[in-house]
Every structure is written in C-alpha cells, then in structure tokens.
Structure of ASCH domain-containing protein:
Amino acid sequence: MTPDLQAAWDRFQADTADARQPYDIFAFGDGPELADELLALVLTGTKQATASRLNLYKTMGLRPPAPGDLSLVLDGAGHPACVIETTQVDIAPFSAATEEFAYVEGEGDRSLAYWQSAHLSYFHRECAREGSFFSPDEPIVFERFRLIWSPEKQ
C-alpha cells in the first residue's frame, strides 16, 4: 500500500474505530473518466452495487468479495475517495441480473436494458485486454455494498 493510501486507511480507522484491513483497493470501471463517474454515484448513494466477472478474480489469484469485506475506492487519478463494505454477494450467470439489481447499481437510467448493454460492452473490453472472450454464461459476482466512510463526510 502506498503512503497516501495507507494515510487514508489510517484516517478511516481513526474516524470509525474500525480495525479491519482492506479486502481490496480499486477504482470502478476501466479508465479515469468512468472511475470518476461511478465514484460520484457511490458518494451520492445512487450506486450501491457492482458486478464483476468471477474469472477476473481467478485470473488475479483473488477470492471474490464476501459480506463484511471493506474496500478502499479510488478516484480516476488513483487517489483514495471512500470506503465501502460488501453487504451481499451472489454468483450467477450474466443473464441472472434483475431489474432490481440494475436499479441498485445506479448507472445510466437504472434499467435492466441499460445495465445489460453497458456491462456487456465493459466485460467484452475487459476480456479483450486479457486475450479472451466474454460469454453471457460466464459467472458474474453480483455484489451489494454500502458507503461507510469518505473523507469529506467526516
């Protein structure tokens, strides 16, 4: 963990008296603009869920998130922006996404159709970078979370 990330985590722990360590440190999306856009949705409480390919965790040698895990979320420039806590995780095929999950994920018009289109595009880009292909049958990690800390709210 870099010194600025450690300083943010130390501040989170001091502000909340939460001694847990981060499960992950990441920015949403696959570029600075998308990271900032999705972060803004988290900070306003609009975005309370995310979806990731299970195979991505396997490729990275990580376990999928679990309820109670804390993550330090970065902005598009890689600066610490907030801490989220995973509250629920379901692993199911892409086609298992529901209107309710799409709404809670908070992106676009919050419809399932928007969610499917945006995530198909994203997962295809992600797989292309890995030299693989995305299949709608691939297991997806449907993660729900809550915002528990941001420096501006303290």
Q: What stands out?
A: DSSP finds five helices and five strands in the chain. The radius of gyration is 15 Å. The chain has one domain: 3-149. The longest strand covers residues 80-93.
